């Protein structure tokens, strides 16, 4: 299978699964958590709750005005996602792992943008707490974005092998 076809399959699968699972869990939260008491699992490590988040991650930007909020929370992320899609298709050195990682970021970002455009907010419902450590309230799209970022970490900090001295002199 050629590289472009593999990327299209990986991108479609990762984005489709991310958006589908995120939208499904948000619908479950709307139907079963909205207006209800929080639900705890795993000895209160996992809390299911219902929050309408008008901002970005951890509600950042929720107090922005009606002009700035759509620009910073819809237009800017949409431009970044388009740039990421262009990068996925143009960068020849990406392997399948990197393609899936970047596609998870695209899927998570796209799903949250869909919510903001349709409803003016994003539904968050997951909260983790272990002892005094805790997360903000998040959703499946946020998990996909974070998973994609963590999957890319080894490649971001990897050093390219140095060229042999002879090759460097020949290039000069």
TrEMBL record:
It is found in: Cell membrane. Its main location: membrane. It comes from Neolewinella lacunae. It catalyses: Release of signal peptides from bacterial membrane prolipoproteins. Hydrolyzes -Xaa-Yaa-Zaa-|-(S,diacylglyceryl)Cys-, in which Xaa is hydrophobic (preferably Leu), and Yaa (Ala or Ser) and Zaa (Gly or Ala) have small, neutral side chains. PROSITE patterns: SPASE_II. It is a multi-pass membrane protein. Its EC number is 3.4.23.36. Pathway: Protein modification; lipoprotein biosynthesis (signal peptide cleavage). It is an enzyme of class 3 (hydrolase). InterPro entries: Peptidase_A8. HAMAP family: LspA. The active site is at 124, 142. This is Lipoprotein signal peptidase. This protein specifically catalyzes the removal of signal peptides from prolipoproteins. GO terms for biological process: proteolysis. Belongs to the peptidase A8 family.
């Amino acid at each position: 299978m050629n590289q472009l076809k593999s990327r299209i399959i990986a991108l479609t699968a990762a984005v489709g699964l991310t958006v589908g699972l995120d939208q499904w869990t948000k619908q479950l939260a709307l139907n079963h958590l909205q207006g209800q008491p929080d639900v705890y699992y795993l000895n209160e490590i996992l809390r299911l709750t219902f929050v309408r988040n008008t901002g970005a991650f951890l509600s950042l930007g929720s107090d922005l005005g009606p002009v700035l909020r759509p620009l910073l929370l819809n237009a800017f992320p949409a431009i970044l996602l388009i740039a990421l899609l262009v990068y996925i298709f143009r960068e020849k050195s990406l392997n399948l792992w990197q393609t899936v990682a970047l596609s998870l970021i695209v899927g998570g970002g796209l799903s949250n943008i869909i919510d903001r455009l349709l409803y003016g907010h994003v539904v968050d419902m997951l909260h983790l707490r272990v002892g005094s450590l805790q997360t903000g309230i998040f959703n499946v799209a946020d998990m996909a974005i974070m998973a994609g970022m963590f999957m890319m970490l080894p490649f971001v900090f990897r050093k390219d092998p140095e060229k042999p001295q002879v090759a460097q002199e020949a290039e000069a």
